[in-house]
Amino acid sequence: NRGFMNNIATQMANTGYEFFGGGGLVAPTGPARSGDTSNNIWALLAAKGYEVRNTRESILALVDSPRDKVVCINPWLQDSSAMPYEIDRVFKEMEDPDDPNRNLSLAEMTKVAIANLYDGRSGKGHRRDPSRNQGFFIMVEGGKIDWACHANDAMAAIGDMIDFDNAIGVALEFLKKHPFETLIVVTGDHETGGMTIGHATTAYTAYYDRLLGQTNSFQYFGANQWATHKAAWTASVCPNVASPDNLAANPEMLALMESVFGLQYVTLNDYQKEKLEDAYDKSMCGTNNNSASENSYLYGGYEPMIVTITHILNERASLGWTSYSHTGVPVPIFAEGREAWRFAGFYDNTDIAKKLAQSMDLPALPVAK
Which pLDDT score, from 0 to 100, does residue 129 have? Predict the structure, then answer.
């Protein structure tokens, strides 16, 4: 059960794997929910020989001073103790470029992982345990691409896709130096959100530059600027929830839409303004003029105002969404390096593991024909 966060962390400590990097632990000292274990993960990691590092400087130091067992946790953790969205990491870094504890990107964490696991650099023999065989396997996940697409936030997804692409670039640099024994496989477990290039309101024209005014993800905005606004204005807005211009008459909210999302209210058409007004009422007061079915369709399980802002911004840029969930759209798979030919074609996703086993000369597993 993936909700048993303490139990999963317990399993992590018991694997003996040499490197973990990225986000943190959701329930490190007790159960996340009923049925979960209640271990102290920090004590368990220490007992199993793991060192925990959670500053940028100490994590990057592993490039030149690797450790046998290390857990690297990004300094700033966002929702569910995950690494921040790349759009938010960049925003924070621009706000305080001299912060010594600024976060690592996925690409930087990938560089650290490779350097920490690679045994053969110039024959230095830097590992504490010389009996380990050379060679390694790393799985790198751009996990919040999925979360951004669930929320229909194109810019958050694009930012994390770029960071993921940069991580692939780090891996490709290693492959260039070790072309005959390195395999890189890139894929996804599923598509989410049904994001499409093109929208009914923009026909054959795209306006991607309209996305560039967005400075924060839906998550950061919801936890910060929006939370502050809602706390300050609910008491004055909700007694007049039936008013048709609660949003239009609130210059602070209009200014927030422009400063965080680059969305200028005066440039919107009447239908877009109507949708925003309904969403604002629903978010602020829990009610609007829509039916329950309409609200479910328009907002899913997300904050109505925020998801409506991203919908309209994305539509104006010529991007559309079909779902808040996973879709049946096939995902691509790319491979380069040793035995990359095995990964051509269409097949069940479970065959990827079997093809990897073959490529790494592991014991034979059945592969669908």
Answer: 58
- CA–CA dist 81, 58 (Å, integer): 19
What is the spatial distance between Cα 206 and Cα 210, in angstroms, rounded to a whole number? 9
CB-count exposure of residue 105 (10 Å: 0-12, 13-18, 19+): buried
**pLDDT tens per residue, range 282-293:** 999 999 999 999
Residues 14, 225: Cα–Cα separation, whole Å: 41
The DSSP-derived string for 29-75 is SS-SSTT-----HHHHHHHTT-EEE-SHHHHHGGGTS--SSEEEE-S
Contacts 24+ apart (CB under 8 A), 292-301: 300/324
Which tokens is 267 given? 């440039």
The model carries a pTM of 0.93
Cα–Cα distance measured from residue 210 to residue 218, given in angstroms and rounded to the nearest whole number: 16
